[in-house]
Amino acid sequence: MRSLNSRLQVRTAGDDFAGYVLGSDFGFTINGYVTAVFGQPVEKWSISTVEPYRKCYGIDPEEFKSYRDAADSAVLVAWLDDRAVGHVVVSTNWNGYGHVDELAVTAAARRSGVARALLDAACRWGRDKRLPGLMLETQNNNLGACRLYEGYGFELGGIDYLRYRGIDLDTREVALFWYFMF
């Protein structure tokens, strides 16, 4: 059997991007909310458990259509053998960082190195653009993403307790901003 590295490729999104997004499951289960603490490893953050529920962001393939051929952005898709299994959308942010607008891996392909391969591709893109690093945002209810970013080398740079209150005044969701310097 070939190794995952030889079977996994990341390349620029093609015309089949919308079909891949619309036909994929990007949902995940929420089990709790972490309390992020600057300078403390994710594994030490306290977790307020909740009754598990499923969350799925409504990924709209049209939202990033203009990013595909722009000089300051890219949509990259991970392919495992002949199946699209994840994507990353990157752009140049107003502050000069590369901004990971979206990183998603299909439920069936998680924990197989796809997200790391996509982050590697986003870093190559940012370095090619001579940017100082990457930034991204996740939420305090996505513990898997927090562990991924910390393990990759990202540093927690900001916590925004109010970002999602415009959507739901009673939300416990908190925005966590992560940075990776080149």
Overview of the molecule:
The protein has 4 helices and 9 strands, in the order H-E-H-E-E-E-E-E-H-E-H-E-E. The chain is α+β, with helices and mostly antiparallel strands. The chain has a domain at 4-130: Aminopeptidase (3-Layer(aba) Sandwich). Strand 6 (98-105), helix 3 (114-128) and strand 7 (133-139) form a beta-alpha-beta unit. It starts with a helix and ends with a strand.
β content, as a range? 35-45%
Molecular shape: globular
Helix content: 10-25%
Q: Using the 3D structure, state the CATH architecture of the domain at 4-130.
A: 3-Layer(aba) Sandwich
Helix and strand sequence: HEHEEEEEHEHEE
The biggest beta sheet reads:
7 strands, mixed
**Helix count, DSSP H or I runs of 4 or more residues:** 4
Oligomer: single chain
CA-based gyration radius: 16 Å
Classification by helices and strands: alpha+beta
Query: In the CATH hierarchy, what is the class of the domain at 4-130?
Result: Alpha Beta
Say how many strands there are.
Answer: 9
CATH topology of the domain at 4-130: Aminopeptidase
Average of per-residue pLDDT values? 94
- In CATH terms, the superfamily of the domain at 4-130 is Gcn5-related N-acetyltransferase (GNAT)
What is the terminal-to-terminal distance?
Answer: 34 Å
Strand arrangement, major sheet: 1-4-5-6-7-9-8
Q: What ranges have pLDDT less than 50 throughout 5 or more consecutive residues?
A: none
List keywords for this structure.
single chain, 182 residues, alpha+beta, Aminopeptidase, 9 strands
